[in-house]
Amino acid sequence: MVTRADIGVLGGSGFYSLLDDAEEIELDTPYGPPSDVVTIGHIGSRSVAFIPRHGRDHRFPPHRIPYRANLWALRKLGVRQVLAPSAVGSLRAEYGPGAMVIPDQLVDRTSGRAQTYYDDDRAIHVSFADPYCPSGRSAAVETARKGGWETVDGGTLVVIEGPRFSTRAESQWYAGNGWSIVGMTGFPEAILARELALCYTSLSLVTDHDAGVEAGQGVTHDEVLEFFAQNVTRMRTLVSDTVQALPDKRTCPCVSALDGFSLELP
Predict the structure, then answer these.
(1) Annotated catalytic sites, by residue?
(2) How far apart are CA 22 and CA 90, in angstroms?
(3) How far is residue 197 from each of residues 10, 132, 192, measured CA to CA in Å?
(4) Of 81-95, 146-160, 224-238, where does mean pLDDT reach its minimum?
(5) pLDDT of res. 263
(6) Residue 260 CB: number of other CB atoms within 10 A?
(7) What pLDDT, on the 0 to 100 scale, is given for residue 137?
(8) Whether 60 contacts 66, CB under 8 Å
(9) Helix-strand-coil percent breakdown of the chain, rounded to 5?
(10) 44, 52, 209, 215 - which has most CB atoms within 10 Å?
(11) Degrees (nearest 5) of the Cα angle 265, 245, 117?
């Protein structure tokens, strides 16, 4: 049985499997079990661990996902680079359904989610000015463009608490701030990855225009899942190709995120 992986993938809504020939591993962490069993296998020459962040039966809503357990489990398996595909709403009219946004910034509008591993016996402040791995972003952008995606290099993902969608006024407020896309799961994933010195890259598939962008009743959960399902095969190809495009050696700032701290990590 393979018990180690270099790259982790956290699948979003509608993205419940990735590896066809894989081992399943049940893990526990100091923060409980991850969202589901971890599957480990290979994509090309790269060893990969996959966790569906909502569970394979989509039992975890965004505010109940065991984010700390998921990232801890991946690092325990040896993962150092993480890809995070997800479904998002667009806050800009020019980014329609089917666009692939690789954000470079994040705004947290969640509340009550555990967002740190270091909350017991000391205060540790990790730099988060640039929340995404520059090397991972570069690989994702290049791969998406080669794959024929309408690719947006950069932009701000605003993460809302959920599970409800935004009101029209909220959506217009987010857009008015210049933010690009809206989702429910990109935080605290990104900061937890940074606290474990992992590279983290978001692959954000636009499934709809958010409520304040255009007239209408606003998107429904079923519509999001239906659109993602129509694109899941193509999304799996993008993730697989990006896995193989990630650098073998990490030279990005993520590697030194914990420099100066003495920590016991898996």
Answers:
(1) 208, 210
(2) 34
(3) 17, 11, 9
(4) 224-238
(5) 67
(6) 6
(7) 98
(8) yes
(9) 30, 25, 50
(10) 52
(11) 20
Helix, strand or coil for residue 89?
A: strand
At 96, which amino acid appears?
Answer: G
Gap between the Cα atoms of 261 and 176, Å rounded: 39
Q: How far apart are CA 266 and CA 256, in angstroms?
A: 16
Q: Are 23 and 49 in contact (CB under 8 A)?
A: no
d(CA 184, CA 61): 9
Query: Mind listing the pLDDT tens digit for each residue in 125-135?
Result: 899 999 999 99
DSSP string of 125-185? ----SS-S-HHHHHHHHHHHHHTT-EEEE--EEEEE--SSPPPHHHHHHHHHTT--EEESS
Question: pLDDT digits over 24-65, tens only?
Answer: 899 999 999 999 999 999 988 899 999 999 998 889 999 999
What digits encode the pLDDT tens for the residues 202-216? Answer: 999 998 888 767 655
Q: Is the pTM of this model over 0.85?
A: yes
